[in-house]
Write a structure and sequence with these properties.
By secondary structure, the protein is α/β, with parallel strands linked by helices. The protein is about 30% helix and about 25% strand. The protein has 8 helices and 10 strands. Strands 1, 2, 3, 4, 5, 6, 7, 8, 9 and 10 form a 10-stranded mixed sheet that branches. β1 (about 15-20), α1 and β2 form a beta-alpha-beta unit. The protein is globular, with a radius of gyration of 19 Å.
Length: about 240
């Protein structure tokens, strides 16, 4: 990979990279996965003093709301942080295309066409995750939401028939099919995805300008850089 376009070394200010994604492709093992690849790229290509922390979503939400927070949350979308206008946080250009798939338990007669298709059903969620299109129906009592503490536990509940539907990103599906091979027979993937979306890097407004500019320059390179495209290809992903 080539050095940052501006050519200047960024002073090693601490950059906290925090994520609540503890599942593939973002985390695939100790020190492995797309989030760790991003960290290595930030350290090597952008010369940033970046450190990675994995936090549960409720703790991450509190962390990024602190006045003195200076960091980056990768792989997220403004809608999930109530920042549709992109004014509360600073957002990079898109870094990845992805989809949320609808996995339904075997034998469920569901023709998924949108949130209204789930009325009367139980959705298996992950604690702390925001489902902006579904949560209003949950609040109104039209859909039941039953959370687990992890994606794996939610999928296992689906396999046991304890919930009707679970949402899973297309980016993580290949790994989960290896991890839980019973998914091949025990669930059905709806032809219509719950949503298609892009993933961004979310930056704190308080971030030092030099660090922010280095990240933005790096994201601009990501989209066409052969090295980064090879990283994504290892997980079956494509750049935005």
């Amino acid at each position: 990979m080539s050095p940052p376009a501006h050519g200047a070394r960024v002073e090693p200010a601490a950059l906290e990279v925090v994520s609540h994604y503890d599942y593939p492709p973002f985390i695939t093992g100790p020190g492995e996965g797309l989030s760790h690849d991003l960290l290595a790229w930030m350290r090597g290509e952008l010369r940033l003093n970046a450190e990675f922390s994995l936090l549960p979503r409720p703790r991450l939400t509190r962390r990024v709301s602190e006045n003195n927070w200076q960091g980056c949350v990768p792989w997220v979308n403004p809608v999930w942080f109530g920042d549709e206008a992109m004014q509360r946080f600073v957002w990079s250009a898109p870094v990845m295309n992805d989809e949320d798939l609808v996995l339904q338990r075997a034998g469920l007669a569901l023709d998924y066409r949108g949130p209204a298709s789930l009325h009367g059903l139980t959705v298996g969620g992950v604690l702390g995750h925001v489902y902006a299109d579904i949560d209003p129906a949950v609040k109104a009592g039209r859909v039941r939401r039953e959370d687990a503490v992890s994606t794996e536990l939610s999928l296992r509940k689906l396999l046991r028939g304890r919930v009707d539907v679970v949402f899973l990103s297309r980016s993580g599906l290949p790994w989960w099919l290896q991890r839980l091979p019973e998914l091949q027979q025990g669930v059905v993937v709806a032809p219509v995805p719950r949503q298609s979306f892009q993933r961004f890097l979310m930056l704190s407004p308080q971030m030092q300008a030099a660090t922010r500019d280095a990240v933005f320059d790096g994201v601009a390179q990501m989209r066409s850089n052969p090295g980064w495209r090879r990283v994504l290809a290892r997980y079956g992903l494509s750049p935005a």
